[in-house]
């Protein structure tokens, strides 16, 4: 006979404000099987938990019902308290009389009645609860890091330095990401490549890191601690084990006029190329879309010149399988340089460029070797107009959100330009200056006060070319919207930072949620900023939201420490709320008829086939079996099973019917 | 094809040639236009400056009347009328309370089934794919397509073309043999309703449009709005006075350019009503374009 204890919580005024707690406790005491029913102001407090613990011992309770808030809030708290008193934690359940009752109803007698009903159905459920035991699963102590930008690099190094294996996958031919493209970084103006390249080399040389560049995640299966991944290593056309990176193929390639992705289209590269001299690995890759051999069937000049015979035109994509325990997504961002603003003439006028293109112009490794020259005719621009929020904070045409980094890099651009072209004029059109960060405001002030950048608060309405100049028409909203016209030689658009174009596909592969802008969603915006809703998958860097380098690095280290914490134990405990196929004594073995409807329906591929054989090894029947490691307890198979052979532990059909009948 | 038709006041007055040319091409391309019975003023610039409710109620009555007559698509050639009717439809569909209030005022219900088409949308539906229009004399001129402010804006109301760099008229004119130029003043303000009260402003603003079009080699400015036309054509004297320059570039309605390409008589298209003669610069080569130009010249001289 069940001996249930009911504990009704006031939650201060939260529940007691609308529900007659004393009556709930009194009525609950009358439910058959309830041997103990009390109320308390804060059941989750230490004295509240003690009430439960003592009652379990004194009244020899076989089940506990806590009528309080949502199980999402405190189920763990109360189950732990029960466990401390020796009661199996899965014999404790919560009746939600706060979110589902007191918060949403008025102070009327019906509210109290509903609370009593809610308690009654949970009591009926708990009477049928069985002790359950957490499932232990092993942890593969290898992490997969997706994306080799600064966030991915930082996460990889942190995990690797903690002694765990890391597989780093980067889609482009070299790691380094956007940071490698940058000239100097705010607010210290230290050279981006100088601080990044040592980290890149460290990644390449680290004994714990396996690096796959020019590779992408093909598929993902499994669950926390036990992921199975397939990585597509795209055919480089170059055997990396033979190539020494001498670069003769690059020099000899006759196809030399392909816009360089690394130089944001401002420079040119051959069909066989490394993105930049500091590339890691320093092994070239053949761009099949532009290579003469792949297009016309002849050329092979690189093959003739390669002293090591490393060029392999027939190389195929390779699929690499790996088992990993945790995944860090650090796939970065793209910039919005599309046709969002036809009035700014991007794409029409070569001297209207994006902020990333300006970075390449200002970079010593860029197409102009760091000299500020405009793309159209190579002349040094006398006047540059910088336009902040070109797409950001513009619900009508661009994106709603603030890209966060543009205020700072625009100030930096104006500063770099003035440092290189002393007599030049730098105008900055802005909406607000958002310089929240250590030494950030001071940096912007320096650009304005020391370097003489002219800041104009207002938007630009149109840019057009006239007599070789770019006419920038805007308004100065601090002077009452007075129209302004500037004849500029070059215009730099601080285009918005958007999620990578493949972000949605990646999110679906990883089964993590993403926001309307395709940025990956963190599990909680404040308290769980590096976890996703899928256990074992973490986020770092700008794939989660626009952020600058220090923030991306901090988040990457945060994600790495979460991975290390996960790897600190050999086994993981999982909630035993999973489906099970019944088993019984011979000659029935199981009521399962082996139709395997469940197998097709299971979204997690958790249904296996088990052959039941007699002692001689003759097959008696084939029945379904649930893999406890893969099952997520969704219940699809339970509702589908025609013979009711499958049940969900903790939510059995019997329990659910009892709840319904108690109403 | 058959559309409902809302002429508005200008097409019966100062922009009579817009209607004339529209009708001239309509009957040749198989477009039937049926005016909304008992239509009234769209409210124009005045209503929405005085009363928001009135500015919605006036066009709403036209929309409701059109709906009552079973019209699904109403062609509204004047950009200002188009803007008022489109805005009214947008607001009525967005705001249920407003719809109730207006229904009581106009004593009719508007469900939203009748939609408004601007002149480019309307013509595109009939001749957009190039069929149904016989080009007799290709309009071989460099043209500056001038959309003005109301045709493409605000984007969320009109949902038509690109607000800052529209292309639809350029595309349509390519089909009749014209070469649209890439220029910067496609959607800049011509001075609009200040035509009467502040001609000095109109002279300045319209002057810049004409200057840019001329400088970039356009031989004609093509418009779709009576207000734009009157500012660029009727105010040419003031424009020249303000800038101290002479401009001979003619301003044609879209429908007139199409009409010329179809070989329709200049008089039927109302070209003689313009204050700036529709004359195109001499071209070295002779061809159909040149003939059209000659005829146009004759027409003006008549």
Mind sketching the topology for me?
The complex is a heterodimer of chains A (663) and B (302).
Chain A: E1 4-9, H1 13-16, H2 21-29, E2 34-40, H3 46-58, E3 63-68, H4 71-84, E4 92-96, H5 98-102, H6 109-127, E5 135-138, E6 142-146, H7 150-161, E7 165-169, E8 184-185, E9 190-191, H8 192-205, E10 209-212, E11 215-223, E12 226-233, H9 248-252, E13 258-259, E14 268-269, E15 272-273, E16 285-286, H10 292-296, H11 301-305, E17 318-324, E18 326-329, E19 333-335, E20 352-354, H12 355-362, E21 383-390, H13 406-420, E22 425-430, H14 440-449, E23 454-457, E24 460-466, E25 469-476, E26 482-488, E27 490-495, E28 497-499, H15 503-510, E29 537-539, H16 549-566, E30 571-574, E31 579-581, H17 597-601, E32 607-613, E33 619-626, H18 636-640, E34 646-648, H19 653-662
Parallel strand pairs in A: 1-2, 1-3, 3-4, 6-7, 6-18, 7-10, 18-29, 20-27, 21-22, 21-27, 22-23
Antiparallel strand pairs in A: 5-30, 8-9, 11-12, 12-17, 13-14, 15-16, 19-28, 24-25, 25-26, 31-34, 32-33
Chain B: E1 2-5, H1 16-28, E2 32-35, H2 44-50, H3 52-68, E3 73-75, H4 79-94, H5 96-106, E4 115-117, H6 119-127, E5 142-146, H7 155-158, H8 168-174, E6 179-180, H9 194-197, H10 199-215, E7 220-223, H11 226-234, H12 236-243, E8 251-253, H13 254-261, H14 288-301
Parallel strand pairs in B: 1-2, 1-3, 3-4, 5-6, 5-7, 7-8
Helix pairs in contact in B: 1-13, 2-3, 3-4, 3-5, 4-5, 10-12
């Amino acid at each position: 006979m069940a001996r249930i204890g009911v504990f009704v919580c006031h939650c201060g005024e939260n529940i007691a404000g609308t529900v007659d707690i004393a009556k709930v406790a009194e009525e609950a005491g009358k439910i058959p099987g309830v041997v103990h029913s009390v109320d308390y102001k804060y059941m989750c407090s230490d004295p509240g938990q003690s009430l439960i613990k003592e009652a379990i011992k004194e009244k020899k309770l076989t089940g506990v019902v806590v009528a309080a808030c949502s199980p999402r809030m405190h189920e763990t708290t109360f189950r732990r308290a029960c466990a401390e008193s020796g009661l199996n934690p899965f014999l404790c359940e919560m009746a939600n009389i706060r979110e589902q009752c007191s918060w949403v109803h008025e102070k009327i007698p019906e509210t109290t009645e509903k609370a009593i009903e809610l308690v009654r159905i949970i009591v009926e459920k708990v009477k049928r609860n069985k002790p359950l035991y957490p499932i232990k699963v092993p942890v593969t102590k290898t992490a997969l890091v997706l994306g080799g930008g600064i966030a991915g690099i930082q996460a990889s190094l942190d995990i690797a330095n903690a002694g765990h294996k890391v597989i780093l996958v980067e889609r482009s031919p070299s790691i380094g990401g956007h940071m490698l493209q940058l000239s100097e970084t705010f607010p210290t103006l230290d050279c981006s490549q100088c601080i990044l390249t040592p980290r890149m080399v460290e990644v390449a040389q680290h004994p714990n890191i396996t690096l796959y560049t020019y590779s992408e995640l093909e598929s993902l299966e499994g669950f926390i601690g036990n992921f199975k991944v397939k990585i597509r290593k795209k055919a480089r056309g170059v055997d990396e084990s033979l190539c020494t990176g001498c670069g003769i193929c690059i020099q000899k390639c006759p196809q030399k006029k392909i816009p360089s992705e690394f130089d944001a289209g401002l420079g040119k590269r051959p069909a066989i190329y490394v993105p930049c001299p500091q590339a890691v690995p320093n092994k070239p890759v053949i761009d099949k879309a532009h290579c003469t051999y792949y297009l016309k069937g002849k050329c092979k000049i690189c093959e003739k010149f390669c002293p090591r015979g490393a060029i392999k035109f027939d190389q195929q994509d390779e699929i690499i399988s790996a088992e990993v325990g945790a995944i860090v997504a650090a796939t970065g961002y793209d910039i919005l340089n599309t046709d969002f603003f036809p009035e700014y003439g991007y794409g029409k006028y070569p001297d209207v460029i994006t902020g990333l293109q300006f970075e390449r112009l200002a970079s010593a490794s860029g197409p102009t070797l760091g000299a500020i020259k405009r793309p159209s005719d190579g002349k040094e621009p006398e006047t540059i107009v910088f336009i902040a929020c070109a797409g950001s904070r513009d619900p009508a045409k661009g994106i709603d959100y603030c890209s966060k980094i543009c205020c700072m890099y625009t100030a930096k651009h104006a500063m770099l330009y003035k440092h290189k072209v002393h007599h030049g004029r730098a105008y900055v059109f802005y909406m607000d200056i958002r310089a929240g960060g250590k030494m950030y405001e001071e940096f912007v002030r320096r650009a304005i006060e020391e370097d003489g950048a002219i800041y104009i608060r207002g938007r630009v309405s149109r840019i057009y070319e006239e007599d070789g100049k770019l006419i920038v028409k805007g308004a100065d909203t601090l002077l009452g919207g007075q129209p302004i016209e500037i004849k500029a030689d070059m215009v730099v658009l601080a285009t918005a930072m958007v999620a990578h174009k493949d972000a949605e596909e990646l999110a679906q592969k990883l089964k993590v949620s993403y926001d309307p802008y395709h940025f990956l969603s963190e599990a909680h915006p404040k308290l769980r900023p590096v976890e996703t809703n899928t256990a074992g998958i973490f986020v770092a860097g700008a794939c989660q939201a626009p952020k600058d380098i220090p923030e991306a690095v901090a988040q990457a280290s945060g994600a790495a420490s979460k991975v290390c914490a996960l790897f600190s134990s050999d086994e993981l405990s999982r909630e035993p709320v999973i489906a099970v196929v019944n088993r019984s004594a011979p000659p029935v073995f199981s009521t399962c008829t082996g139709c395997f409807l469940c197998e097709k329906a299971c979204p997690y591929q958790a249904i296996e086939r088990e052959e039941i054989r007699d002692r001689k090894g003759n097959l008696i029947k084939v029945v379904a079996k649930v893999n406890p490691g893969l099952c997520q307890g969704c219940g699809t198979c339970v509702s589908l099973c025609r013979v009711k052979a499958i049940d969900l532990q903790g939510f059995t059909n019997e329990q659910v019917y009892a709840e319904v009948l108690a109403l | 094809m058959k559309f409902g038709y809302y002429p508005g006041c200008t097409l019966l007055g100062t922009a009579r040639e817009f209607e004339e040319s529209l009708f001239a091409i309509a009957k040749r391309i198989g477009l039937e236009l049926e005016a909304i019975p008992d239509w009234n003023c769209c409210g124009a610039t005045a209503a929405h400056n005085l009363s928001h409710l009135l500015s919605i109620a006036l066009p709403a009555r036209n929309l409701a009347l059109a709906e009552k007559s079973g019209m699904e698509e109403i062609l509204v050639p004047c950009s200002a009328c188009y803007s008022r009717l489109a805005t009214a439809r947008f607001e009525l569909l967005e705001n249920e309370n407003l719809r109730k209030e207006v229904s009581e005022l106009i004593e009719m219900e508007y469900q939203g089934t009748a939609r408004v088409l601007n002149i480019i949308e309307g013509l595109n539906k009939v001749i957009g794919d190039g069929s149904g229009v016989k080009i007799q004399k290709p309009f071989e001129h460099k043209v500056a397509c001038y959309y003005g402010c109301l045709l493409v804006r605000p984007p969320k109301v009109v949902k038509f073309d690109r607000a800052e760099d529209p292309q639809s008229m350029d595309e349509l004119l390519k089909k009749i043999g014209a070469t649209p130029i890439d220029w910067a003043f496609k959607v800049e303000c011509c001075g609009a309703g200040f035509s009467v009260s502040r001609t000095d402003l109109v002279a300045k603003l319209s002057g810049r449009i004409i200057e840019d079009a001329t400088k970039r080699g356009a031989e004609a400015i093509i418009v779709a709005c009576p207000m734009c036309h009157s500012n660029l054509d009727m105010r040419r004297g003031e424009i020249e006075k303000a800038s101290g320059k002479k401009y001979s570039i003619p301003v044609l309605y879209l429908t007139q350019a199409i009409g010329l390409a179809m070989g329709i008589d200049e008089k039927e298209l109302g070209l003689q009503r313009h204050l700036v003669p529709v004359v195109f610069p001499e071209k070295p080569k002779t061809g159909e374009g040149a003939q059209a130009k000659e005829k146009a010249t004759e027409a003006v001289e008549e």
